[in-house]
Structures are given as structure tokens and as C-alpha cells.
Amino acid sequence: MTLAQRLALAVYGAVTTLAQPLLRRKLRQRGQVEPGYLDAVEERFGRYGAEAASRAWVWVHAVSLGETRAAAPLIAALREQQPGLRLLLTHGTATGRAEGQRLLRPGDRQAWLPWDTPGATQRFLAHFRPTVGVLMETEVWPCLTRACRSAGVPLLLVNARLSEKSLKQAWRLKTLSQATYGGLHAVYAQTEADAQRLRQLKAPVQGVFGNLKFDATPSAAQLATARRWRASPAARPVALLASAREGEAAMWLAQRQPGALWLVVPRHPQRFDEVAALLAGAGLKVSRRSQWPESGPSAADWVADVWLGDSLGEMALYYGLAEVALLGGSFAPLGGQNLIEAAACGCPVVMGPHTFNFLEAAERAQACGAALRVADMGEACQTATTLLNDGARLAVARQGTVTLIDGGRGAVQHTAQAVMAALARP
Description:
Rossmann fold; 19 helices; transferase; alpha/beta; lipopolysaccharide biosynthesis; Kdotransferase; Glycos_transf_N_sf; seven-stranded parallel beta sheet
């Protein structure tokens, strides 16, 4: 490591240490809306109680909901290859932590990844002493990377992606970024384009395996429930606005087409009430998923103007209920959400112009007919309504989802083998 890199890391570590009071304040504020952020707050600062440390942890960090779902098939494959594996699963968001609880087995441990200061990361590693660390997708932190290297913990970045926009941002702090990515043990990218961008930051790219999300299996129980509810005599065709980001529900509201029953699912749970108020304020009759009985939507719910998907962990149910989905995050310059999950549930998508977070997957989906590209929300609403009324085109699009998923599988086994190789190192 060069002198300039050591200096950049030292300055960064000093800044994040001084910023800790701001983090505490942010957690208190966020916890007022999402109480999960108030759980085990001291873990955020590298304090994990008196539990005896183990040298056998296989540590997987999945920052949020999407990364945790992507980690699920990898964790399952690792358990197959190493029976008795002790999983340490860390997160950064409350939704990721809630989803991660589903992946735990007796003997596993779940914790917050600490705020990226020299002291907190060193305490984290000293407490758990993981055998290997696996970071999902984009979660690379300077102090954590340096601490792992100093402690001799091989740190892998898997399912790695780096957009052109993120590369430009990282390049503004080139010295710090190259010190950080260059400190990783190994990187396994989703695409060759991701690999090329990562190499510019000195990342040790050792393979291009594809996207783990193609190997994820949606909840069979939720899909079965969706089929049962769609068989109701009162059922109507449903179009879905999936994982809507800030501003997109308002865009949809201004452009929605009459006739269809729309289901709006905000990306973040803290916006459920905000979106409900927006819809009701527009004079729409809103039916909220959280208020449905166990038997599902009633006849009255089926004649509502719009459904609000205000629950966590039920995207497979929502995709199963819908004939077609608009891809959230793609109508504002936010990079798009995960369209692979929709395809795995057999739901075609209509996507806007902004899909740089999943560029190759979006291009492949469009090529095989699982996704349609449009210029804006108005065209998206029109396209979705047209598909709802054209059974032949809808059937072709559904077949495209099968083609997309079948052609994308395989990353899990390659990635699991790479993690096992790191575990087996001398």
C-alpha cells in the first residue's frame, strides 16, 4: 500500500469516527418510522456483548432486502457443501435483517455490521473471528477491508456489480477507492462489464459468474396463495407497480389508465402510510393488504380502485397476483429494482429508461421478451393496459420469463465453490 493510500485511509477513518454521533441521531430518527433500527444499536459500533467468540463462523454480509434474497441460494449451497456450517449473517437495514431471519438455523448468529470506523471494525473481527467474509454485490468499506486484511480474514466480494455511475463516483476518491478494492481477497463479478469497471479500481477480479438472483426460488406458498386468490369469482386482472421508489407513485397516479385494478407496492416500508395518503387524497378507493383477512381480498376489495401492498416479504405473492408489472426505480434516475424476481414468478415487466443497476439483466429480459422498454411512466401505463387486454401477447411475454430464468442459472454453484476454496486455504 502506498503512502498516499495509507493517508487516505487514515483521514477516512478519522472522519467516520467523528461522525458517530450523527449516526446515532439518524438511527433514532429512522427508528421512529421503522422500529427495527432501534434493535441492538450498540452492535452498530462494534459492541456485541460477552458471547464467546468462535473461529468457525462463515460470515455473509447482505446489507438490505435485495442482497439478503440474493444470498439465500448461496447460503443453501454452502450448507450443502459444508454440513454443520455456522453462519454469521450481517446487515445494514431493518428490512434486510427481517428477511435474514428466515435464513437462520440453530447455532447461527445475526448481527448488524458496524459503522465503518477503525475501532468498530476491529472489535467486530476480534469478537467473531470469522474464517471467511463474503460481501454481497456492492458493500465494500475501507476500514472493514483493511481490518480484514490485517486480521488475515479473506474477504470476498461476490455477485459483484459496479455501474458506470458508481465508477465515476468512486474515481473522485481514486486513491481511497483503489486502496479499498485492492485490499479484497477476491472479487466475482456478475458481468464482464462489471469486471472491467472493478479492475479499474484495482479489484482482484477472479471470475465472472453471472447473477445469483437467477438461482433464487420464489416462495411456492405465496405463489400458490396468489393462484387461489385469483380464482375468486370477483377477481379482476391486476397490474402491479413494483417496488416504487420516491416520486414514482405520484408519476403513476398522474398517468394511470382506467379499467385495470392496480396494485402499488412501495419499495420502503416507511412510505406505506405516505403512499396510502397520496392515493386516498386523489379520491381513490384504496384497499390495503395489511387489512385483508387470511382468506385474502374480499369481493369489496376486488372492486377497489387500487390495492396498496403494505407488507414485507411478500413480493412473490404480489407478482403472482399480477399479470404484468411496472419496474420500480426505472422511471426516475435510480437504476431500477430487481426484475429477475418478477420473471422467476412468471410476471412480465415494463421498464422505464433507467436500469443501470441491472443493465445486462434488463437487456437479456428485453431480448427474450420478458420485459418491454418504454420512455416514461405514461407509456408504461398504456403498455401495461394493452398487455392486460391482449392474451396472446401476454402469453408470449410469460414464456419469455421462463427463457430468461432458465438461461441465467448457474452462478450459485460457481460462487459456492469459490467461497469453499477460500475456506480451505492454508
